[in-house]
UniProtKB/TrEMBL annotation:
This is Uncharacterized protein. The keyword Transmembrane applies. It comes from Enterospora canceri. Keywords: Membrane, Transmembrane, Transmembrane helix. The chain crosses the membrane at residues 45-70, 82-98, 105-123, 143-162, 182-200, 220-239. It comes from the Eukaryota.
């Protein structure tokens, strides 16, 4: 089911990209945007490697290890972990596709409704100011926040699922101590994401945007990520509990 939804949503995203590809090409290169905002000398390849780690490798490692550490408490066979992997990876992809759709649709709507915004985007590559980089900054920061929220919520959902499936009556503190490796891993991952987000936002603040505006934008991204991921992970909890 999730694979079919992913294919449909990917098609919609690609259609949106086709409509606005000229405007997207008018934006400065992504590595230049991040280098300017974060005051780093970042190459194109280095930029893509960092984003691949933050958006793909980081969440997948945290999710995989969390499943390995929690599912073995209830199931000795591999059915449960494999079922969880198959579902959660598709849900992670779906959450990204929804987030990208939201970003692209908002960008497309602004272009359609505002001639000023359209002109500003078309000349962004030649306008060496912070405003030239805000669209890519917002998209990148939103996806990093999205990945962090997904990892944190997944740990909470996975612990709740395992506690429900467990036949023991261990207390809450005993349950936390039993799962401390998974909790420690996710907390360390979230601290790393928090440092990255802080560094990005701090760079934007230095480049003219006030702390209040930056905090407001971070909260907005967090709320949107929380809403999308909470809904999808609730579906994951229902599906995985009924299947096992």
């Amino acid at each position: 089911m999730f694979q079919q939804v992913n294919v449909i949503l990917l098609g919609i995203d690609l259609i949106l990209i086709a409509f606005i590809h000229k405007e997207l090409n008018s934006l400065p290169p992504l590595h230049k945007t991040l280098s300017t905002i974060m005051r780093l000398n970042m190459s194109r390849m280095g930029c893509y490697v960092i984003l691949a780690f933050l958006l793909v490798a980081g969440p997948l490692v945290a999710i995989t290890v969390t499943i390995m550490l929690t599912k073995k408490q209830v199931f000795s066979e591999v059915k449960s972990p494999l079922a969880s992997y198959a579902i959660i990876y598709n849900i992670l992809l779906l959450s990204y596709l929804i987030r990208v759709f939201k970003q692209l649709f908002a960008f497309y709507t602004k272009l359609a409704l505002s001639d000023t915004f359209y002109f500003y985007i078309r000349v962004a590559k030649y306008n060496n100011s912070l405003l030239s980089y805000l669209v890519q900054y917002d998209m990148t920061s939103s996806l990093v926040m999205h990945a962090a929220v997904f990892v944190g919520l997944f740990l909470l959902v996975e612990l709740a699922v395992i506690r429900r499936l467990s036949t023991t009556n261990a207390g809450a503190w005993s349950y936390v101590k039993r799962n401390w490796p998974a909790i420690l891993l996710v907390v360390a991952t979230l601290v790393g994401y928090g440092m990255v987000i802080y560094h990005i936002e701090r760079g934007v603040e230095i480049h003219e945007i006030s702390l209040g505006t930056s905090v407001s934008m971070v909260f907005s991204r967090f709320y949107e990520a929380l809403l999308i991921n909470a809904l999808l992970l609730y579906i994951y909890a229902v599906v995985i509990t009924n299947d096992l």
